[in-house]
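Can you please make up a protein's amino acid sequence together with its fold in C-alpha cell form to help me picture the idea?
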Amino acid sequence: MKYKLVIGSRGSKLALKQAEWVKDKLTLLNPELEITIQIVKTTGDVKSEPLSVIGGKGVFTKELEEALLERQIDLAVHSLKDLPTFVPDALTIAAIADREDPRDALVFGHDLGSTPIRSIADLPKNAVVGTSSQRRAAQLRLHRQDLVIKELRGNVDTRLRKLDDGQYDALILAIAGLRRLGLENRIGHPVSTEEMLPAVGQGAIGIETRVDNESAIVVTRQLEDQTTRTAVTAERAFLRALGGGCLLPIAALAVVHQDEMKLEGLVASPDGARVLRDTTLGACSDAIRLGESLAQRLLDQGAGSMLATPAKGSDLHQ
C-alpha cells in the first residue's frame, strides 16, 4: 500500500515548478510514496492591488499555512523569501533545500539587448527599470538617482511580456526564479552582491509541514541542505530582529565556508538616500546570534528611524 502525501503550492508557473521538483525528488527517494500537488490560491495571487495594501509579507503563504493546519495538505512548498520569519507553533520548516544562486539579475528589453551592460552604472541615463521591490528600488537609487523605477507586478512571464512590449527598458529579477523556469537565457547580467544585496532567503526553497506529522517530517528531511539552512537561519534572524518584512528595504546574505560564516546586512531608506550596510563574521553554530547582533548594530546606527518612514506613495515590496 502506497503512503499518500499531498503537496500544497501556489498556482504560478514558478511555484508549481518548485513543487514538482520537490515531488520528483521525494518520489525518487521514496518509491512507495504516492504524491499529488494541490493548488492553493493565496491573497497575493488573487488580488491585483499593491502588496503594501493587501498585507505585505505573508500574502503568498498565509493560505498555504491555513491548508496545512486544516489538514488539507501535508506539505507546503515556499520560496523562502516569501515566508514570514515567525512560523505558527503547530508548523515547522521541515527542510530547506540546496540554495540556487541568490543574486538578482538585470533583464534587458529589445533596445538594450545589444548594449554592453555589466553593472547598474552602465544602464542608459533615465532608463525605465521595472521592479515591485523596495529593497531593489532603494539600492538602484543608491547607485543611480536618474533611473525611472516603475512598479511591476505579476508572474515572471507577465513581467517579461511587459518588458518585451517596450513598457520598460530593463527589469530586476531573481536569478533563481529564471533558472528554475528554464529562462536562464533572459539573464542579461547578474548583479553583483556589492551592487545589490539580495532578499533574505532568496534562492532557497522551504518545505513546511505540521509538527505532529512525523512521517512527513522524516520524508521531507531527505531534502535538507545544512549549509543553506545555516545561512538562511542567520539571514532570517537578522530580519526578525529588525522587525522587517516585505514592505521594508532590508537585505542580507550569509556565505558559509566550513564552520565559519560571513553575514552581510543592509537597511536603506526607501528613496535610497541613506543606506546602512555592515558585515559580521562568526561560527556557523552561532547563526541566530550573528543575525541578531548584526541587526542591533544597524539599529544602533539609526536603522529603526529609517524603517519607520515608508516611501511616499510607494507600492513596492521587498
